[in-house]
Amino acid sequence: xxxxxxxxxxxxxxxxxxxxxxxxxxxxxxxxxxxxxxxxxxxxxxxxxxxxxxxxxxxxxxxxxxxxxxxxxxxxxxxxxxxxxxxxxxxxxxxxxxxxxxxxxxxxxxxxxxxxxxxxxxxxxxxxxxxxxxxxxxxxxxxxxxxxxxxxxxxxxxxxxxxxxxxxxxxxxxxxxxxxxxxxxxxxxxxxxxxxxxxxxxxxxxxxxxxxxxxxxxxxxxxxxxxxxxxxxxxxxxxxxxxxxxxxxxxxxxxxxxxxxxxxxxxxxxxxxxxxxxxxxxxx
Length: 284
Known about the structure:
The chain has 9 helices and 12 strands. By secondary structure, the protein is of the alpha/beta class. It has a domain at 2-157 and 185-214 and 254-265: Rossmann fold (3-Layer(aba) Sandwich). Strands 2-1-3-4-5-10 form a 6-stranded parallel sheet, with helices on both faces. Strands 6-9 form a two-stranded parallel ribbon. A two-stranded parallel sheet has the order 7-12. The longest helix has 22 residues, at 71-92.
C-alpha cells in the first residue's frame, strides 16, 4: 500500500509524514517547490511512475488576505489543481483524498457545522476551496473530502494565529485576542492520525469533519494556553473586526462530525500534549 502526498510541507502534511514514518507506511511526499499541482503533465507522470493507492491533496494557497491579493494563483492551485488530480485519479482508479476547510461556511450558524450543512463561501479562499470539493465529488467515484478547523502542530504558518500567540505568550508580551471568534482548535497530529484510520479502515467514501472535541473562542483558548505555559502576558479581549481583513471573515468556524466515527480527544488535552512536546524539544 502506497500513499502519494501533495503539500507535504504544511502543518498537516508534516505531521502525516512523521506518523507514516513511525508506522512504516509507504508515503511519497512532494511540496509545491518540488512539484506544482498545476503542472498537469508532471503530476500525471509522477502518479503513473509511483502507482499509489491513495493520493492526498493538501497543496493550497492559504490565508484570506493572501488569496484576495493573489486570486489567480489561489484558484489555479486550490481549485484547478484539485480538478487535474481528480481527472487523473479517476482515470487510473486511484482514491483521491482532498483536504478542505471550515472556511467554506459563512459562520452565521449557532452551533457547530456538520458534514451535511450547506457551504456558503464568501471570499476567494473559501470559494476556491469549495470549488475543489465540487470538482472531486463530481469527477471521482472513490474519494474522501476532509474538512479541518484551525490546525496547529510542528510546522505552524509563520504568520498564523498559533505561531503569533505562542511567541507573545512565551515572551510575556501583551496581546489582543478576539472573544467573538469561535473555533474547534485541533492538533494536526490528531487530525492526521484520524485521517489515516478512516482511509486505511476503508470507511465509506464521502465528506468528513475532523476536529478535536469541543469548541472555544480565541480569547479563552489563549487564556488556557497562557495558564499551561505559565506566561505573564496581559491578554485583552477585542472583537474580531479589530483585526483588519481584505476579505470576509467567519466568526463561528467550529466543526464536528455527525457520528461518522468516535470523537477525538478534547482540544484541551491535545493542546497540553502539544505544549509538552514543545517543552521536550526546548522550543518554549
